[in-house]
Amino acid sequence: MSELPRIRPAVASDEAAIRACAEQAYRQYVELIGRKPAPMLADYRAQIAAGQVYVAASEQDELQGFIVFYAEGRHMLLENVAVSAAGQGKGIGKALVRCCEAAALRLGLASVQLYTNAKMSANLAIYPRLGYVEIARRSEDGFDRVYFEKTL
User: What is the DSSP letter of 1?
Assistant: First the structure.
């Protein structure tokens, strides 16, 4: 297995690469869902400015993936995680999720919560393998979402 990427806070100059990664990672779901998933519509500029985005970068500083998370009450909300096509299968997504969990622990938060679209079957399978338990299903903003939580 190759060396895991360096994970660092995103900076403004990362925005185009983050948006391109999100477009590539989520475009396969547009037809299935019937419209662009929320991560394709996110205001990454504002999220980067708020310190909510972290990127996984190669030794050459090429973006391999990113994650968006922030504290919300007693838990960390993992809002979005995406891995580039070139970064698939290298443990980058897991490393990004672990980064979020470590940040939650540093803040003394009790858990990490996340949601995914009910039609994203791959995600529904991945999160339980990472220790997340389904806690709710809701329709919000026109999306059918499945909520997961991992107690830390």
Answer: -
Give Cβ neighbours of residue 74 (< 8 Å, ≥ 6 apart).
109, 110, 111
Q: Give me the DSSP letters along 82-146.
A: EE-GGGTTTTHHHHHHHHHHHHHHHTT-SEEEEEEETT-HHHHHHHHHTT-EEEEEEEETTEEEE
pLDDT tens string 110-136: 999 999 999 998 889 999 999 999 999
Q: Which two tokens stand for residue 98?
A: 């672990």
Tokens encoding 81 = 């995680």
Structural domains of the chain sorted by starting position, each given as residue range(s) with its CATH number in brackets: 6-151 (3.40.630.30)
pTM over 0.85: yes
Residue 139, token pair as written in the block: 């329709």
Query: Cβ–Cβ contacts within 10 Å for residue 59, how many?
Result: 8
pLDDT score for 85: 92
Query: Could you report the per-residue pLDDT of 11-61, keeping only the tens digit for each?
Result: 999 999 999 999 999 999 999 999 999 899 999 999 999 999 999 998 888
Residue with token string 């009910």 = 118
